[in-house]
Write a structure and sequence with these properties.
It is a single chain. The protein is of the alpha+beta class and 615 residues long. It contains 25 helices and 17 strands. The strands form 3 sheets. A 6-stranded antiparallel β-sheet has the order 2-3-1-9-8-10. A 6-stranded antiparallel β-sheet has the order 4-5-6-7-11-12, covered by helices on one side. The chain is globular, with a radius of gyration of 24 Å.
Length: 615
Amino acid sequence: MCGISGSVNFKLSYQQVNNYMFHRGPDEQNGFTADNVDLYHLRLSIVDIGGGKQPMQLNNRYTIIFNGEIYNHQEIRSALNIHGNTSSDTETLLLLYQQYGAAMLDYLDGMFVFAIYDSVEKTIFIARDRSGKKPVYIYNDGEKIVFASELNCLKGLLPLQIEQHNMYHYLRFGSFYKQLTPYKNVQELGAGTYAVINCNNLDYTATKWWDISKYYQQQHNDTLATCLEKTDAFLHQGVKRRVESSDLEVGSFLSGGIDSGLVTAIASQYNNRLKTFTVSFEDEYDEAPLAKLVADKYNTHHTQISISFNSLQQDVENIICNYGEPFFDSSAIPSYYVSKEAKKHLTVILNGDGADELFGGYRRYVPFASHDFFKSNALIKNAASAVKKIFPPAGNKKSTYNYIYRLASLASKSNLHIYLSAGVDIFEDYENNIIHAPAGYLNQMQDDFNIITNTDLSGLKKIMQLDFDTALFNDLLVKMDIANMANSLEGRSPFLCKELLEYSPGIDDSFKINRSTTKYLLRQLAKKYLPAELINQPKRGFEIPLKKWVNNELKEIIHDYLAPDNCFSKQLVDKNFINGLLSNKVKIAAEKRVKILWTLFCLEVWYKKVYLGQS
C-alpha cells in the first residue's frame, strides 16, 4: 500500500504531500511532471521491491501511480499471455490498460486506486476497487483538479471551505454518505467506480464499473453443501493470493471469532510459519484464550498484545484528526492501537473484514430475515409505536431488553429512518434538536434507499446490500485504512476477494441467518477448521468502553470542546440540548447520550484541529 496524489492545472508541493502522507509511503517518494499534469507517489514497498518503483511508465505514453495490491496479477499475465520487464503488479496494470482500457478492471482481484496519465489522449484514468477498500478524494473547482489518498493532504494543499449541507449527513449517519465529504468541491470516488479526466478542458466523467446490486439480483439455488464447498474454495483462493502476493512476511490478526479464525486456519496451510496476533485490552472482555486455541491448533507463531488506554487522553485528538473528516466510530481508537503494536512485528497482516456484511454477521439482521420492515405495514408500525411509548429506553446496549426496544423503535418508523434506526442510531428520536438543516438534506440517501427497498429482494438482502453500500464503505473500510496506514501497516481482507463478492449475495437467506443464528454458513464451515468453543461465540468486535470514557477519562476534554456557546456543533445542534447532555439532564438512554456526545466531540475536534488548524 502507498499514498498517491496528482493534479491538473496545479503544481503539487511534494514537500506538503510528504508532510501529510509520509506514513503511507515511507520507503520511497517520487514525482512525475508533464504538460499540465503532476503525479506523485509515496511507496510502502511490498511487491517486487526492486522493480516496482513509481511513477512507472510504459512506451513513453502511459504513466501510473498506484495504491494497493493486485493479488491475482501473475494469474492474469499467464491467462492473457502478457509479458513485462518486472514482476510488479504496477506494470501488470499498465500492460492491461494498454490492451484493454477500462475493461481490464473486471480481471482484477485486489484493493486499489490507481491513476494512469495518457500523454497522447491527454487524459487521466482513475479507478477504485469493488468494495472501496483503498481511498481517493478529488477536488474539482472547474479550473483545476487535485486528488490524493487522504483528505488531510488536500486540506494541506488547498484552501478548502466547509460544505455545511454535508455536516447534517454526518450527524445522522456518523460519517459522510458515499461520495460526500466535509468540503466544497471535494468528492470521494465511489467504490467500483472509475473516472476519466480530460486534461485539456477538465471534463470529468465518473462511471460505475461494478455494483453488488447485480449479484443480489442473481439468486442461485445452491444447496447448503454446495454453498459450503464453493465458499471454502473461494476463501482458500482469496487467502492464498493474499499470502503469496508479497515479498514481505504476511501475518494474521486472530481474535476469538470465526472470521479471523477461518482466515488464520487457511493461511497456515500456505505459510507453515504463520505469525498470528491477538489483542487483549485491560479491564475488558479478553478473547485471548479463545484465540490461543486456534493458534495452538495450527501451531502458529503467536503473540498476545496487551493494550491499555492509559494514554487515551493524550492520543484521542490525534487519532480523530488522522481521518481528515469528522468520523464517529469509536472503535477507531482500539484499531489505531492494535495497528501500532502489530507494526512492531510486521508490515502486512490479514483480517476478517467484510465477512459480517457478506454472510450475515450482525444481530440486527435476525428480524429482517423473517420480516421485511422496509415494507409499509400500518398494524406493525402502530403496535411498535405503542410498545415504545409504554416502555423506557434500555440502559444496557447488550441486553435482550435493548434488542427488543430497538426493534420496536425501528418498526415504528418509515422509509430511510428504519435503516438509520437499525444501524448507527445516533440522533434517531432526537432529530428535532438538529437546527438549520436544509429541507431534503437526506434526499440523496433516501433516493438510493428507495432504489434498493423497492426491489423484490427479501428484507434481509435489502439491509445487507444497504450495509455493504454504506456502512462498509463509509465506516469500516475507512476506519481500518486510516488506522493501518497511520502506522504504515497493510491490511488484507480475503473475504472481500472478487469471487466471494460476486458469489455470496446470491446465497439463500437461510444459510446466512438461520432462525436466531447469525452467519450460519460460516459457522458450519468453521466446524471443519476451528475448535468447537469458537463456533457459537457471538460477534463482539472491539469492546469499546465508550460510556466509561465519556463519563470519566474524557469527560473534561469533551466538556472543554462542547461547552462554549461558540463551538461549531452549536451551529448544527440546539445548544440547550448539547448543554443538557453534558450535564446529564436530558431524559435519554445512557448509551444514546454518550453516542451523541461522542459524535459531536469528533466533529468539534475535526473543526478546531483540522479545519482551523489550531494547535
